[in-house]
Write a structure and sequence with these properties.
- The chain is α+β, with helices and mostly antiparallel strands.
- It is about 40% helix and about 10% strand.
- It folds into two domains: about 180 residues, 3-Layer(aba) Sandwich (NADH Oxidase); about 100 residues, no CATH class.
- The protein is built from 18 helices and eight strands.
- Helix 1 packs antiparallel against helix 6 and helix 14 runs parallel beside helix 16.
- The N and C termini lie far apart (about 60 Å).
């Protein structure tokens, strides 16, 4: 590791340092930046624990309006998200770090290939939580060994408001799509945080450079932005295909198109992406098998095959049944009648969630008389939710 940092085995935690051992805060910050760059971080900025005070107010309003949908974990202990010092009273500085995952092709191109699946850019490679957390831990151990002070590491899974903190640390700004935008990397940054008990010189927050642009608002297929800088997750395709555990609401099914895991539209359309460095590093690169895979192939995945295909992938977390639900919605939107055979086979799937989605897909692909004849023979269905799908399809 560049910069004379100790090896990982030597960085087991904070140690007692003499005054002569300690670097001055400016020198420590310079060394920290050098270490972060050597570990592959593309952006680094430092802010103070009180930087999200205003963002906390907006977050509470978001929760009160129900915009988080069924993501109950967001509503748990909101005061911890609003104020990092509630999460850890000893924090004196917050180091925000970013890794570029800019795609090497336009993520929107696949949307016109209706028999192919659109998987969000961030999920086409290995799970970024695992990749980035290892680097954060190495950097945090270096910082702890250099200062003798305690540190804590966070990557997206704890009660930390990463985007407002990254905004305050000067890495970028929260755009009208509520995601972070960087002048260097557009909308394509993975974020991580190190909380430190050491007080470091903070960076100046980034200005908002969205101006009058509405591209991210206008491109959203489901109108998930009630206003600039505000997201209703209940309408967001990323929420609907990932966090939502039940059937996809009927009102959004056609709008989902062939997006089977997440949605990149608002990110990919951002004009700042033209300045982004394209091409991800090897550990974050897209797997060829996840670049626009065929819907027919995905529909045939059983649980074992699903787990094999998505080893080390964030997609694996939603499980095979929710994933096949999404694939069936895309099949129903494909306009390809030959895919009806895949949907029909899944009418006998063990999962009611899958069977219900198969009903809808068939209702979109089959001729009305043929579908009516099929529905007449579906009296053996004993799940209430699937029965409702049959009735709704027959009535449409």
């Amino acid at each position: 590791m560049a910069g004379g940092g100790a090896g990982v085995a030597d960085l087991c935690g904070p140690r007692l340092l003499t005054a002569a051992d300690r670097l001055s805060p400016p020198d420590l910050k310079t060394a920290l930046i050098r270490e972060a760059r050597a570990l592959g971080f593309d952006s680094i900025g430092i802010t103070s624990p009180d930087a999200t005070r205003e963002a906390g107010k907006y977050f509470r309003a978001f929760l009160e309006g129900g915009g988080h949908g069924d993501m109950d974990w967001l509503a748990n202990s909101p005061e911890r998200r609003a104020d990092p010092r509630v999460l850890w009273s000893g924090v004196r500085s917050i180091i925000m770090l970013g890794v570029n995952y800019g795609p090497d092709e336009d993520p929107l191109d696949v949307l016109a290939r209706r028999t192919r699946a659109a998987i969000s850019v961030y999920a086409q490679g290995d799970d970024y939580h695992d990749v980035i957390k290892k680097r954060l831990k190495i950097l945090a151990r270096w910082l702890a060994a250099s200062t003798g002070d305690e540190v804590k590491v966070f990557v997206d899974t704890a009660a930390v408001m990463e985007k407002p903190l990254a905004h305050a640390a000067g890495i970028g700004w929260q755009g009208k799509h509520t995601n972070l935008v960087s002048r260097e990397f557009g909308s394509w940054l993975f974020l991580g945080a190190i909380f430190s008990a050491t007080e470091l010189p903070p960076d100046r927050g980034e200005a908002d450079h969205c101006g009058s642009c509405r591209a991210c608002q206008d491109v959203c297929p489901t109108d998930a932005f009630p206003a600039p800088y505000k997201l209703d997750a209940r309408r967001c395709i990323s929420y609907l295909t990932i966090e939502n555990k039940g059937p996809i609401p009927h009102e959004f099914r056609k709008s989902i198109g062939n997006r089977i895991y997440g949605c990149d539209d608002c990110l990919a359309i951002c004009p700042w992406n033209k300045f982004a460095q394209q091409g991800r590093e090897q550990k974050l690169a897209a797997r060829d098998a996840l670049r626009a895979p065929a819907l027919a192939d995905l529909a045939r995945l059983d649980d074992a095959a699903f787990r094999t295909l998505f080893t080390k992938s964030p997609v694996k977390r939603i499980g095979r049944d929710r994933f096949i639900r999404n694939v069936l919605i895309a099949i129903g939107n494909s306009g390809d009648a030959s895919l009806a055979a895949e949907a029909r086979r899944l009418l006998d799937d063990a999962s009611p969630l899958v069977r219900g989605a198969a009903v809808w897909a068939l209702s979109q692909l089959m001729a009305p008389d043929d579908f009516a004849a099929l529905a007449a023979r579906a009296g053996g269905e004993d799940d209430v939710s699937v029965q409702q799908e049959w009735r709704a399809a027959a009535a449409s």
